[in-house]
Design goal:
About 30% of the residues lie in helices and about 15% in strands. It has about 550 residues and is α/β, with parallel strands linked by helices. It folds into 2 domains: about 400 residues, TIM Barrel (Alpha-Beta Barrel), CATH 3.20.20; about 70 residues, Golgi alpha-mannosidase II (Immunoglobulin-like), CATH 2.60.40.1180. An 8-stranded parallel β-sheet has the order 11-10-9-5-2-1-13-12. A 5-stranded antiparallel β-sheet has the order 14-15-16-20-18. A 3-stranded antiparallel β-sheet has the order 6-8-7, with no helix packed on it. A hairpin with a 4-residue loop joins β7 and β8. The longest helix is centred in the first third of the chain and has 17 residues. The structure holds 1-O-alpha-D-glucopyranosyl-D-fructose and calcium ion (CA). One of its GO terms (molecular function) is alpha-amylase activity. Keywords: Glycosidase, Hydrolase.
């Protein structure tokens, strides 16, 4: 298998708004991140991924950009950013930026122009269509609820927005738009970045005849995925982006691809197709959602997690490359979702870390994961900040049979805001995140769960992560080895092998809070890492709740 630095790298995602606030306005900022670079280096991080830091009205916390070449004022200045990059590089780490170009903000000058008249030179930068039968051009539903079309009175047409109405979709079929995008990418490469995480990169191409989506329920709007996700044209666009820009840099590219099968995933990441290095796939993020709407219901079963991950391991092996993650800024906290944040927080947080660090692929850590940070309990909807959830609530609370209590309970399980509560640095006021008032509620458990305590504690989640990261970094087998699922149908245990050049590393994970007998016993070996200090599995014959053992066969 072809070696590459981005395959070996440890990636750490920073959501700047919630990471560290230096000037006391309650909002994380670039100077704040700068003060934490040593912490990240010490953890073993190689690549920082910054969620968007560009100028934005913050309808979706920076994923709605009004100027791609400016830094959001709340976060600092371009000089602060240059300093951050310089200091990141000085520590031997790399920096990748979030590229959000499926849509812009409706406050971007291109859109403001586009809105002015039907013959404005920027009109075709976006997607405008006439009303059909007095309503929107078709029945597509926005991923953020309601119609995907917004009526704009001055020109009596609708514009398309797959996300919020303040995120109008760019028209990728217009070559001028693509030129603008390549140009802004060059701007950041010229400043020295090491790559991009590419937002919603599988929805650039749309079926430009905008057919109605198949009707699956009695709701007014329907999912139009068939007509705007993973279209053949989308691959052409990415290939062009590769040829025009990416191929000229030794960079890392990771595309975000929801609603994507492994077969599609290969197309994006197969090096011979010249598109991207890897994708953020979503299959394992959908296992605890019943139906298509994650805010309604669903339950987690470990076997579903195993099956989804195993499928991607086999599918991409030797063809593409996986990105292994269980959390990001769009997902709840992994220890609350797939572990037990009450009775086995340490054990399950470590076990889940062991999982993402021993599969084939590049591991991505989301800020606070390395501390085992948990979901927050919100008492009221007013405490949530996320536009996706609040839009959902606005639309759904009007539907017959809506149950506010049930909805709040589900939001407390699945909301994106769980990932966005401030990073817990210390046990002092506001968790050391800010000297002011945090923009979103702080999880009150920062008194127990914080970096300061964990840095001193050899039995902390943080200390375990450090060992885990070092273990992977020094093991070609863990990075490049073949994956084999040894117990694919077991309900509770994930047991797999990684093999390279005759070396075999076994990983055995108890995904549950039960004590589980192991039958047959695994082979004898040398334990490389475990979150328990008892006997190795081949002597003990059973696994403790959320136990993880990584061992080399002798
Ligand atoms: O996410 C796109 C996306 O697919 C998510 O909206 C995801 O489907 C959803 O959160 C799961 O319910 C990206 C960004 O990661 C996200 O933060 C942005 O809100 C979105 O794009 C729009 O830019
Ligand atoms: Ca600030």
């Amino acid at each position: 298998m072809e070696k590459a630095w981005w395959k070996e790298a440890e990636v750490y995602q920073i959501y700047p708004r919630s990471f560290c606030d230096q000037n006391g306005d309650g909002i994380g900022d670039l100077p704040g991140i700068l003060t934490k670079l040593d912490y990240l280096k010490d953890l073993g991080v190689d690549v920082l991924w910054l969620s968007p830091v560009y100028q934005s009205p913050n309808d979706d916390n920076g994923y709605d950009i009004s100027d791609y070449k400016k830094i959001m004022e709340e976060f600092g200045s371009l000089e602060d950013w240059d300093q951050l990059l310089k200091q990141t590089h000085a520590r031997g780490m790399r920096l990748i930026m979030d590229l959000v170009v499926n849509h812009t903000s409706d406050e971007h000058p291109w859109f403001i122009e586009s809105q002015k008249s039907r013959d404005n030179p920027y009109r075709d930068y976006y997607i405008w269509r006439d009303s059909v039968n007095g309503g929107p051009p078709n029945n597509w539903e926005s991923i953020f609820s309601g119609s995907a079309w917004q009526y704009d009175p001055p020109t009596d047409q609708y514009y398309l927005h797959l996300f919020s109405k303040k995120q109008p979709d760019l028209n990728w079929s217009n070559p001028k738009v693509r030129e603008e995008i390549y140009n802004l990418m060059e701007f950041w490469f010229a400043r020295g970045i090491d790559g991009f995480r590419i937002d919603v990169m599988n929805m650039y191409a749309k079926d430009m005849s905008f057919p109605n989506a198949p009707v699956k329920n009695d709701r007014p709007f329907q999912k139009g995925f068939k007509y705007h996700v993973n279209l053949p044209k989308n691959h052409e666009y990415l290939h062009e982006m590769y040829q025009r820009v990416l191929s000229r840099y030794d960079c890392m590219t990771v595309g975000e691809a929801s609603f994507t099968s492994p077969q599609e995933g290969i197309k994006y990441t197969d090096p011979s197709r010249q598109e991207l290095n890897m994708i953020i796939q979503f299959e394992h993020m959908g296992i605890d959602t019943e139906g298509e709407d994650k805010y309604i219901s669903g339950a987690y079963r470990p076997l579903d997690l195993k099956r989804a991950l195993t499928r991607w391991q086999y599918a991409l092996n030797g063809k593409g490359w996986n990105c292994n993650y269980l959390s990001n800024h769009d997902q709840p906290r992994q220890v609350s979702r797939f572990g037990d944040d009450k009775n086995y927080r340490y054990e399950s947080a470590c076990m889940l870390g062991a999982l993402t660090h021993t599969l084939q692929g590049t591991p991505f850590i989301y800020q606070g994961e390395e501390l085992g940070m948990t979901n927050i309990k919100m008492e009221r909807f007013e405490d949530f900040r996320d536009v996706e959830l609040l839009n959902w609530l606005r639309v759904h609370s009007k539907l017959p049979g809506f149950d506010l209590h049930k909805a709040l309970e589900r939001a407390n399980y699945i909301s994106r805001d769980h990932a966005r509560t401030p990073m817990q640095w210390t046990d002092s006021e506001n968790a050391g995140f800010t000297s002011g008032t945090p923009w979103i509620k702080l999880n009150p458990n920062y008194r127990q769960i914080n970096a300061r305590e964990q840095l001193q504690n050899p039995h902390s989640v943080l200390s375990f992560y450090k060992k885990l990261i070092a273990l992977r970094k020094n093991s070609e087998t863990l990075i490049y080895g073949e994956f084999e699922d040894l117990l694919p149908d077991h309900e509770d245990i994930y047991y797999y092998k990684r093999a390279l050049n005759g070396e075999e590393i076994y990983i055995i994970l108890n995904l549950t809070d039960k004590l589980i007998k192991m039958d047959p016993y695994p082979p004898k070996g040398k334990v490389l890492l475990s979150n328990y200090c008892g006997k190795p599995i081949w002597e003990e014959g059973q696994l403790h709740p959320f136990e993880a053992q990584i061992f080399r066969k002798e």
